[in-house]
Design brief:
The complex is a heterodimer of chains A (301) and B (79).
Chain A (H helix, E strand, L loop, with lengths): L1 E8 L1 H12 L4 E8 L8 E2 L8 E2 H13 L4 E4 L3 E6 L4 E5 L3 E9 L3 E3 L15 E2 L2 H4 L7 E5 L3 H10 L5 E5 L9 H8 L4 E4 L2 E8 L3 E8 L2 E6 L2 E4 L3 E3 L28 E3 L11 H23 L1
Parallel strand pairs in A: 1-2, 1-8, 2-5, 8-19, 10-17, 11-12, 11-17, 12-13
Antiparallel strand pairs in A: 3-4, 6-7, 7-8, 9-18, 14-15, 15-16
Chain B lengths: L4 E5 L4 H12 L5 E4 L4 H11 L6 E4 L2 E4 L3 H7 L4
Parallel strand pairs in B: 1-2
Antiparallel strand pairs in B: 1-3, 3-4
Classes of the chains: A alpha/beta (301), B alpha+beta (79).
Chain lengths: 301, 79
Amino acid sequence: MRDIIIIGAGPAGITASIYAARQRLDVLLLTGDIGGQAVLSGDIENYTGFQFISGVELTAKFQEHLRQFSVDVREGEPVRRVAATGDGFTITTTTGMHTARCVIIASGRTPRMLNVPGEEQFRNRGVVYCAACDGPLFSGKDVVVIGGGNSGFDAALQLIKIARTVTVIEKDPAFRAEPVLLEKARLAPNIELLAAVEVREIFGDTFARGVRIVHDGRERDVPAEGVFIEIGSVPNASLAPDLARNKAGEIIIDGGCRTSIEGIFAAGDVTDVVAKQIIVACGEGAKALLSAASYLNRRRS
Amino acid sequence: MAKTITIYSTATCPHCIRLKAFLHEQNIVFTNVDVGQDRTGYDEMIKKSGQMGVPVLDIDGKIIIGFDRQAIVRELGMA
């Protein structure tokens, strides 16, 4: 039985793992991928100490730092279930089972789907969720970004350099993105911003050809070969359904990252932490581990 | 006998970058096709995988979509 199992190797999980190694705990880090949502970020300008860095580079730094310590990392082994046993917890993954005295859930979030006709049909045939990954495939083509928040504008700002035209579509009357992103977007000659839009469907033949929308009371087709869906995300909390969650499905934690079950801690975007930011996730990962370490010490004495 | 490996990727795709780093670490030789720049390569990838998501791996004709570590390890007999 390990001292601690950390679930998810994003910023929170990696930071918690580094702290665990320095506490000389017997730690196992289980994860689907390394980097989580952070690795998909185009340009990060608000991680203290780094004026301008890409998600890939920042994640590489996190991983390099983690490698300085001998932490057992199992990549490609996402966790399916966390269950309490008599003296600890059993963690079931896609390929096996592990046990630990305590757990930190840092499983992050998954992109939300739009749920309109055509989304499923054209996934990876024009409908994509990651501008950093798939942007270059739409060089010289017309693209649509659905979602007027930070993610949507982050994607749009990457795409204006690559695509022929970029149309940002938002369902609310106002765009929720940071003013700095809105300003940058408005300066681009090949961008169109549409608010108060209803998306009816994504249409096409073998691949997506456009989006049918209702705007200003009229229905119209926006031709596009790329449809980027950036409408937020849902927390990956289904692996521990007995934990108290808020209305948004996020795991509720206290100031010490404790959940409603003793011995289970949670950190980062999967929780109800007020800000979903890489730097916050790192801080939460550290807090969660220090809290868990205290818990383990108390149990020993 | 060593297998012939072709990777279809874009320059900025995070999973592509991590996949290539993984293969380098394991000293595995592969050919990289940048489908963002190479139109013929792009069409080839779509024909082989029926979709546009990157990365796509062609290991001696076996197509793997995405950085599916377990499938890659299995296919290369690395486990």
